[in-house]
Amino acid sequence: MNYTLTYDQYQQGLEQGKFLGLKCNSCNAVTFPPMAVCRECSGSDCGVTELKGEGTLKTFTVIRVAPEGRKPPYLVAIAELNEGPWVLGNLEDVVPDEADMSLIGKKVKLGSKLSPGDVYSKGDAQVITFTLV
Ligand SMILES: [Zn+2]
Fold first, then answer.
1. pLDDT score for 121
2. How far is Cα 46 from Cα 61, in angstroms, rounded to an integer?
3. Mean pLDDT in the chain?
4. Residue-wise pLDDT tens digits, 14-69
5. Centroid of ligand 1 to alpha carbon of 82 (angstroms)
6. H helices within the chain, ranges in order?
7. Which residue ranges does the chain devote to CATH 2.40.50.840?
8. Percent of the chain residues topping a pLDDT of 70
9. Could you tell me the pLDDT band of residue 73, with boundaries at 50, 70 and 90?
10. Each residue of 118-127: pLDDT tens digit?
11. 50 CA to middle of ligand 1, Å?
């Protein structure tokens, strides 16, 4: 299968501060992070699009028992991007023990940071981060 946007290209984009996703030529839905097919219609006729990197916080959780290589506590959140997709990331600028429901609905800006690999992954990778606007 040919991928319009590979994982490595997506990772290189994040390193450069670009949020590369896919825009479906059939239904116009934006898929981010990129997948093999459109998240809405499963179509494969997609082109590369650069997202603005802005969204709205939908939910979060405090991680208190962390996987290898990560130091708890920290916040993992899901944001709805302005272009439509929901994306998982680390909420960076909130103290985990002070996080409460008032965060839901807040505007966030996307970034990325290098996360250490573990025995289950390909190695170090850029992961999505959120900061409050
Ligand atoms: Zn589609």
1. 82
2. 33
3. 95
4. 999 999 999 999 999 999 999 999 999 999 999 999 999 999 999 999 999 998 87
5. 17
6. 7-15
7. 52-133
8. 100
9. very high
10. 888 888 999 9
11. 17
d(C-alpha 45, C-alpha 86), whole Å: 21
> For residue 128, how far is its CA from the centre of ligand 1 (angstroms)?
23
What is the 48 CA–ligand 1 centroid distance (Å)? 13
Q: Judge if pTM exceeds 0.85.
A: yes
Tokens 């006729």 label which residue? 45
Cβ–Cβ under 8 Å, residues 106 and 57? yes
Which CATH code of 3.30.70.1670, 3.30.470.30, 3.20.20.30, 2.40.50.840 fits the domain covering 52-133? 2.40.50.840
CA of 28 to the centre of ligand 1 (A): 6
Distance (angstroms) between ligand 1 centre and the Cα of 45 equals 8
Tell me the CA–centroid distance for residue 39 and ligand 1, in Å. 7
Query: What is the 122 CA–ligand 1 centroid distance (Å)?
Result: 29
CA–centroid distance, residue 13 to ligand 1 (Å) = 22
Tell me the backbone φ, ψ of residue 47, rounded to 5 degrees: -120, 160
